[in-house]
Q: What sequence folds into this?
């Protein structure tokens, strides 16, 4: 394909849309790879996929393969879903929750998420979803950004307690955060303190320049 070939020399834009959540959404051929970006950051594939893959590696691909239910909050183009299904060969159930219908259309058209058999994609605010769901999960991936901004609810006790409740014993949370300012650094340190001895938390700073990852295991 010509666009893919030329993208090794210069990025080639495929589509650009306005979005109320992410300002703009752009699908671009970049270095031979189709990526999805918001106005100021990479959303799916490219560096974002590398970041979450590292998080999954820390948890362990073999362990993940044995899980039954995975919840993904923030789907965008679905690069972590591709890592789970194509690379890790996860065959259990994946539930993806995404607030932005525009992005779901892009994900289906350009990244073929609708062809993944074990994925249920729900268009809803993740906060509303976690309040309502009756299911429990072995792995919860939290990857919610509105361009470069992380909504406050992600760091509030109410949401954290609810996520912890939805997690099976021995289950994991993988939380992707962006640390740009001193305020963000302190916010993450405060977040860390919210988990007591029933959880084993690890923090991985500077996964790619501005990203800090958390893995949190529920021990009991
Ligand atoms: C970095 S992207 C997710 C990338 C994805 N995990 C992947 O593997 O490719 C962040 C996504 O969070 C979504 N988002 C923002 N606020 C949300 C909310 N309250 N509920 C659900 N999704 C939200 C954005 O629309 C965007 O698609």
A:
């Amino acid at each position: 394909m010509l666009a893919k070939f030329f993208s090794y020399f210069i990025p080639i834009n495929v589509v650009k849309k306005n979005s109320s959540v992410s300002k703009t959404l752009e699908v671009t051929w970049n270095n031979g790879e189709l990526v999805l970006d918001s106005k100021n950051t990479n959303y799916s594939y490219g560096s974002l996929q590398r970041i979450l893959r590292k998080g999954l590696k820390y948890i362990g691909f073999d362990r993940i393969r044995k899980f039954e239910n995975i919840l993904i909050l923030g789907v965008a183009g679905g690069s972590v879903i591709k890592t789970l299904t194509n690379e890790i060969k996860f065959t259990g159930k994946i539930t993806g929750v995404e607030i932005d219908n525009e992005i779901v259309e892009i994900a289906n058209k350009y990244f073929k998420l609708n062809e993944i058999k074990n994925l249920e994609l729900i268009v809803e605010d993740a906060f509303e979803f976690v309040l309502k769901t009756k299911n429990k999960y072995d792995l919860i991936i939290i990857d919610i950004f509105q361009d470069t901004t992380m909504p406050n609810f992600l760091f509030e006790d109410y949401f954290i307690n609810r996520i912890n409740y939805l997690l099976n014993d021995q289950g994991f949370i993988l939380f992707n955060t962006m640390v740009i300012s001193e305020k963000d650094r302190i916010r993450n340190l405060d977040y860390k303190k919210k988990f007591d001895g029933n959880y084993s938390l690890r923090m991985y700073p500077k996964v790619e320049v501005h990203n800090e990852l958390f893995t949190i295991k529920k021990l009991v």
In short: The pocket of S-adenosylmethionine is lined by residues 21-22, 43-44, 48, 52, 73-80, 97-100, 103, 125-127, 143-146, 151 (CB under 6 Å). Residues 97 and 122 are 5 Å apart (CA to CA). The radius of gyration is 17 Å. Residues 52-218 form a domain with the Rossmann fold fold (CATH 3.40.50.150).
